[in-house]
Design goal:
122 residues; 2,3-Dihydroxybiphenyl 1,2-Dioxygenase, domain 1; alpha/beta; 39% strand
C-alpha cells in the first residue's frame, strides 16, 4: 500500500550518502534523483525511502511522533544495519532486541534527527 515515505534533510548529498551506505547490505540504490529529492529503493521493488530538502524552502525538521520503519529481512540484518547507521553518524534510540512476541527492532536518529527503526517480524 505505501509507495514511498519522505523525510526532510538539510543536506541532500549527505543524506543520500548516509542512507546508501547504511542500506548497502540490502542492495539499496537511488531509484530516482530530482536534485532536491532522491528516492532510495531495492531491486526487489516495494516501498522506497525518499530524502529531500523541503519544497517550501523552510528548514527541514523531524516530526514529533513520526518514524520510518524498514524491514531488512532478518534479525541479523537489523543488528548489522543499526550498527552501520551508528558508525555513519546516527544516534542510538534503542539497541536491537526483542520488543514483544514476533517483533524485533532497533531504533536510531539519522544525522538530520529523523527517527528510523529497523525491524523484523516473526
Amino acid at each position: 500500500m505505501i509507495a514511498y515515505v519522505t523525510i526532510g534533510t538539510a543536506d541532500i548529498e549527505k543524506a543520500k550518502a548516509f542512507y546508501l551506505s547504511v542500506l548497502a547490505d540490502i542492495g539499496a540504490s537511488v531509484m530516482m534523483d530530482l536534485g532536491r529529492l532522491a528516492a532510495i529503493g531495492t531491486p526487489s521493488g516495494g516501498p522506497m525511502l525518499a530524502v529531500c530538502t523541503p519544497y517550501n524552502g523552510e528548514p527541514a525538521s523531524p516530526g514529533n511522533g513520526n518514524m520510518v520503519s524498514i524491514a531488512p529481512g532478518s534479525k541479523e540484518l537489523v543488528d548489522a544495519l543499526h550498527a552501520k547507521a551508528l558508525e555513519q553518524g546516527a544516534t542510538d534510540e534503542g539497541a536491537p532486541g526483542q520488543r514483544m512476541d514476533g517483533f524485533y527492532g532497533a531504533y536510531f536518529r539519522d544525522p538530520d534527527g529523523n527517527k528510523v527503526c529497523f525491524c523484523h517480524f516473526g
